[in-house]
Amino acid sequence: MKVRVERHPVFNDMALVLSATGAGRGLACVLEDQVQDEIDSGTLVRALADWCPPSQVNHFYYPHRRQPTPAFMLLVDALRHNG
Fold first, then answer.
1. 21-67: pLDDT as tens digits
2. Looking at the whole model, is its pTM more than 0.70?
3. Are 60 and 79 in contact (CB under 8 A)?
4. Cα–Cα dist 34/23, whole Å
5. Do residues 39 and 32 lie in contact, with contact meaning Cβ atoms separated by under 8 Å?
6. Contact present, 55 and 33 (Cβ < 8 Å)
7. What does the longest C-alpha to C-alpha distance in the chain come to?
8. Residue 38 in contact with residue 22, Cβ under 8 Å?
9. Given phi > 0 = left and psi -120 to 50 = alpha, else beta, which region is 26?
């Protein structure tokens, strides 16, 4: 019995992701800000746009079990008030 197995590329480099996606090799799940130039030029198009969350929303996670440093809390406070 012969079985044909389809392989799916997996990348850990954004340049390779954009190159493969721009060449029509598949879909990529990336942040819109990272590909805005490609979207504007028409190299890439948004798929499932109705299912994409707003790009202006940022999420910041940090574990509450550890005591944060003062510098870290200043960063969190600045992001909270300037976001």
1. 889 888 888 888 888 899 999 989 988 888 877 666 666 677 777 78
2. no
3. yes
4. 17
5. yes
6. yes
7. 64
8. yes
9. left
Alpha-carbon gap, residue 62 to 20, rounded angstroms: 33
Enter the tokens of residue 61: 């996670």
- 76 is written with which tokens? 């969190």
Secondary structure (DSSP) of 13-60: -HHHHHHHHHTTS------HHHHHHHHHHTSS--SSGGGSPPTT----
Q: What is the DSSP code (8-state) at residue 82?
A: H
Note the residue count of the chain.
83
- Residue whose structure tokens are 């992701």: 17
In Å, how far from its chain's centre is CA 13?
Answer: 12
